[in-house]
Amino acid sequence: MNSKEEQTNSEVTNLENESSIAKKKDANYINEQTSDIKLDKKSMDIKDEYKFGWSSYSEITNGRFAMIGFLAIILIELFSQQSFLKWAGIL
Questions:
Q1: 3-state percent breakdown (helix, strand, coil) of the chain, nearest 5
Q2: Most buried residue, 4, 23, 32, 84, by most Cβ within 10 Å?
Q3: Which tens digits make up the pLDDT trace of 29-40?
Q4: Contact, 76 vs 84, CB < 8 A?
Q5: Please, which residues have CB within 8 angstroms of residue 26's CB and are 6 or more apart in sequence?
Q6: What are the Cα distances from residue 53, in Å, to 1, 9, 38, 67?
């Protein structure tokens, strides 16, 4: 490598370092980091406990069962080569 290429490479490295330092000083960058930390602390406090009625645990569980049911209907239609309603004897 000649000295001109080394100088160009060092200039690029210096510009990258300066841009990363400027980014770290940016208020939005700091806010993004602190919001990530808050989310991590908050997610550690959440426990999966069953509660009667409307709760996030119930909604997640119902959503998972709905996804399983929908997948089952699609698989039935795929393997039987007929609609689910006809397969079930409804139509």
A1: 80, 0, 20
A2: 84
A3: 665 655 556 656
A4: yes
A5: none
A6: 71, 63, 28, 21
